[in-house]
Amino acid sequence: MADPLSFFNSLTHTPLFTSRIKTKVKLEQVYDVSNHVLGTGISGAVRIGHHRQSRRQVAIKTLCLSAMAPKRTLMLYNEVAIYLQVDHPNICKLLEVFKGHKRIHLVMELCTGKELYDRLARKKRYSEKDAGRVTRQMLSAINYCHQRHICHRDLKLENWVFRDDSDDAPLKLIDFGFSRIFHPGVRMTAMHGTVYYVAPEVMDGKYNEKCDLWSIGVIVYMLLSGSPPFTGHGDQEILIKIRRCKYNMDGPRWRGISEQAKHFIASLLRRNPEERPSAEEALKHPWLVAAEKEALADTEIDVSVLKSMQRFAACSAIKRASLALIAMSMNAQQLDDLERLFRKIDIDNSGCIKMDRMVAVLVTFLDVPRDEALRIFQRIDQTRAEEINYSEFLAATLQTRIALNQQLIREAFERFDVDNSGHISLENLRYVLGDSYDSLSVEEILRQCDRKQNGVIEFDEFMLALTGDESGVLESGNSMDLVAQGAALTAQVSRNMSELADAVLAKRFTDSSSSSSADLHGLGVEHACTPPNSSRDASTMPK
Question: Signal peptide span per the entry (predicted)?
């Protein structure tokens, strides 16, 4: 087997990865890492970090590559490769990756709320309204993944965390360690998962992405009743009950629970996966449809946000690319209303806004001709996928929420200055953008910005390109027509998804070589505890 480090190096030098993977800059040059440990795992710890320029808080997961077995290293690279592809409001963002020879640092969106497990333990059980709200979010994220041929394979209460401690905080999916890219019609065979949540067909060693729907069914059962559907004195007894699909929704715990909610759970906990709905179909279940309408009833289409899309369409390539980098790392709490508007327009809960839907909204609310609306859409849809993903939407609308200042411009500049030279060279542009960006060659982009004609972009030239401010001085609070311009850089992530899938599969990120180190009694099924040696099991769930 080829050296996995060499394999990873080959992947990092493609437009798919280069906007977020750092190999020439050390973590400590960009972030101050605190001693505050958020959690520990098999291979490393997660700590709070602060961006040295903006002081933005992040979570930094540090893993020791030298201590990993080759198989575990390949699993890590598979996780990073998949994480870099996903872009959804209910999936925790992987912001940057700092890779050295001995360690790798994953810089993540910081979620200060607790796990769904912890909230359930505190609440004892969820009301139908609250359970419906979080279930919609879980299914929306999984539907998004499945449409991109990503199967998570380890959905459980512990892998969903809340962004913050507020009651209505959005839920975020974490940990793609057991996920894999699948091909429709081709069964997966490796046995991964956690005992209480594992689907029966996974134990049979022949399954598809609908194993994730079974796990969602288990989670919803636990939210409404406060206990798992399958219990026993040991893992083997639990697995036997799962194989038999033996559970019930009777007794005091289920009094007052609607028949629609019970029907929804039963549809996901079908022994035959072919009889289960897809994630897209599950989102259309009457139990969730009614709750979705109620949740978004007060969300109006904000015309100022749509006008920002119109302004975005006229911005230069370098400004859009630069501000996309800023947009990807904004404080999520500043974007709550934009997230709700995104969901309002995303009527099919696909995690993306389809072309016909977006064009219709622009024509209706901006009163522009269809051709103009289509042009606006095409400038936002940098992947040419005929849909707008979440980051593209944010990049085209952030100017209504965030003010551009010198600090943010400096942060964007440093993201291009990947070798920390103090300027942006042609090689830097090519490393981040590839050979071209939005039909412009990187040579042309450099020529447009290089006013001194010395072959590089210096900071004052970069600021001028973004602001038009000849003085090179911008007040920290000065509002600008801003970050909206940036849809395209994140589009580099999506553009080469199929190439990534082929590369990952070619390097044996497949089931044939993935006998998990967390095997349980030869089944390859992880126990229900998240950290090693944890006492967390079914007995700690509310009774």
Answer: none
